[in-house]
Structures are given as C-alpha cells and as structure tokens.
Amino acid sequence: MTAYRPPKIAAHEITPEAIFMNRRSFVGAAAGGLLIAWADSAHAAALKASASAFKAGEAPTPEKDVTNYNNFYEFGMGKGDPAANSGDFQPKPWTVTVGGMVTKPREFGLDDLLAFPLEERIYRMRCVEAWSMVIPWIGFPLTTLLDKVEPLGSAKYVAFETIVRPEQMPGQSGYFQPLPWPYVEGLRLDEARHPLTILSVGLYGKTLQNQNGAPVRLVVPWKYGFKGIKSIVKITLTDKQPPNTWNTAAPNEYGFYANVNPAVDHPRWSQATENRIGAGGFFGGSRRDTLPFNGYADEVASLYAGMDLVKNF
Q1: Hey, which of 81, 193, 205, 278 has its CA 20 to 30 A from 144?
Q2: What is the C-alpha to C-alpha distance for residues 306 and 174, in angstroms, rounded to an integer?
Q3: Strands (E), the chain
Q4: Percent of the chain with pLDDT over 70
Q5: Are 270 and 130 in contact (CB under 8 A)?
Q6: Could you give the CA distance from residue 131 to residue 110 in angstroms, rounded to a whole number?
Q7: Angle (nearest 5°) at CA 261 between 158 and 266
Q8: CA angle 42, 111, 211 (to 5 degrees)
Q9: Given strand 157-162, what is the order of strands in its sheet?
Q10: Contact by Cβ (8 Å): 17, 290
Q11: pLDDT for the residue 21
Q12: pLDDT digits (tens, 9 = 90+) for 12-45
C-alpha cells in the first residue's frame, strides 16, 4: 500500500489551510496500532434513483474512504474530523431559500428536494490538494431547481451559502476560526445550468451522511472539490460575481473558477498528478495524471472559449 503523503510545507508557509494538509485525524489509539471509528451510517436512509448515462468509467472509491476522508472545516480541519465530530448535527428539518434576481423566489424543504427526479451519477472528484476519488452521487441537475424560480435575464451568477450552527458544528466554535462563516461559493449562471452540475442529496444509494454535506450539497465535477459547498441553506441569483470563501482567504492560491487544470500549479505544489484515495487499500492510493477539467473537457471546455485559464484560475 502506498500511503498518501501531502507536500512538505516550510515553516514560513504555515497557514490554516496548510495545517489540515499535514494533519491526519483518527479516532482512538491503542498499543500496536490505531483504532478507527468508522462513521455511523444509521441516519442514512435508502434513496431511489434512476440510472444515469453520467458514469466515470472507473470503479467507485470504497464508501468507507469517501465517508471518512474529506474536508468539512465546520467539523474540524483533519480528514477524519467530519466523520468523528458531526454526530450531533441535525439535517432535519431543512430549508433552502432561493431568491435574488428571480421571478418566483421560494423556499424548498427537504421533501421538496427529494421529490425532484433523482439520478445516480458516478463522477470523478478532484481535490485541490492533489488527491481524488470516484463517487456515486445521487441528485438532480441544479438547473431544474433554477427553472422553478425563473431567473431574470439580467442574472449572471449563482451564489451559495452554507449553514452556521456552532452548537452542532464544533469547527465553527472556539477562539481560533480557520475560515470566516458562513462558507460561501459561486458559479456563473451558465456553469450552474450545465447538465453536469447537480445538487446532491445522497451517495452510495443513501441520503448524504453529515460529514459529506447533509442534507444537500453542490457537485461540479470539472472543478476542484472546494467548489462543492455543503449543507446549503441559501441560493441567490445575482448580476455580480459572488465571493467564494477560499478565494477571499487566499486569492493568490484559490481562484473563483477553480477548474481542474494540470497545467496550472498551486503555488506550493504541482497539479500535474493526483493520488486516487482508496485505490491501494485503506486510505492508500495510486498516483495518476490529472486530466484537464478533470476529464470533462469535451463537455465543458466550450464554456471558457477565449478565456485565459491561467489568469482565470
């Protein structure tokens, strides 16, 4: 097994983001090895979803890796923290408010979201930290929700906002806050309406577990994973480019577009290759070349025709 080893970071480069890249969080320890506390999936309910033509053509990453190795700062900065610290989070009841530059603003309850025709879509997911997975999401195209509120012709962007609930999200409480809350993200309207862009309400045939963004999150498979905002409570149509959390925190490192691009390195590591988590056993992986737009160039490259993808990273 080849273990994942993030890039070394010099002392002068230490930032909140750099801290989590060099931290492995597991629950419990014992002489002779680690005791891993896998996430409790008891709260996940089975979902019915139709088969989709959107398939990665690769075996999905083992479920235990996807649900126990991820970034969700609201529950802590370690990869295992979301699974370990999200047990008290209550994803029901839930409301997503959709408004801004629309004709018919409205609120969608969780039952409304689950009533959309659901599909299973097996997408590649590429983290900006140079690791990747293949995930069988369950969800529906974001554009079908946008159609319900009828965006105005002057709307150009879609802004997203996650929940702030420090009493249930320990990463949002305490004196040291690695990020400003709420976590926010944004897409151009044509990106949001692209057929690949979905709102996910589940994975592996079940509703989303807390650590994966329950009850609803954004999935944009040709962009780095930090664009996939979790536990969404607000969607706003606007004519101005909305802020996104990582771009605000470190604009020289994280762009608004965040398209997967092996030719544009992060300032502190190469993006030319990636480590596929789970491909080599427990939290192991295999190194492989990163594909432009994460392998979805045929579908989405036309969205950026004429753009400088180095400047607009």
Answers
A1: 205
A2: 45
A3: 29-30, 33-34, 50-51, 95-100, 106-109, 119-126, 131-141, 157-162, 184-188, 198-203, 206-207, 217-219, 232-238, 273-277, 285-289
A4: 85
A5: yes
A6: 31
A7: 95
A8: 40
A9: 106-109, 95-100, 232-238, 157-162, 184-188
A10: no
A11: 36
A12: 333 333 333 333 333 333 223 222 233 344 468 9
3-class secondary-structure state, position 71: coil
- Taking the C-alpha atoms of residue 211 and residue 81, their distance in angstroms, rounded to an integer, is 8
Q: What is the model's pTM?
A: 0.86
Distances (CA, A) of 274 to 6, 21, 133: 11, 14, 10
Question: Beta-carbon neighbour count of residue 230 at 10 Å?
Answer: 27
Provide the β-strand partners of residue 22: none
Q: Would you give the distance in Å from CA 177 to the centre of its chain?
A: 20
Residue 31: DSSP 8-state = T
Residue 8: count other Cβ atoms within 10 Å of its Cβ: 10
Q: What is the mean pLDDT of residues 260-284?
A: 88
Q: Which residues contact 159 (CB under 8 A, 6 or more apart)?
A: 100, 184, 185, 186, 234, 235, 236, 237, 238, 242
- Which residues neighbour 9 within 8 Å (Cβ) at sequence distance 6 or greater? 18, 21, 22, 268
**DSSP reduced 3-state for 53:** coil
Where do we find the tokens 């309910």?
Answer: 45
Compute the distance between CA of residue 67 and CA of residue 61 in angstroms, rounded to an integer.
10
The string over 60-73, giving b where at least 16 C-beta atoms fall within 10 Å of a residue's C-beta and e elsewhere, is bbbbbbbbbbbbbb
- Residue scoring higher pLDDT (246 or 175): 246
Tokens of residue 194, six digits:
């692209």
Both tokens of residue 192? Answer: 């949001």
- Evaluate whether 92 touches 215 at the Cβ level (below 8 Å): yes
Q: Rounded to 5 degrees, what angle do the CA atoms 55, 56, 60 make? A: 100
Range in 175-184, 198-207, 231-240 with the lowest mean pLDDT: 175-184
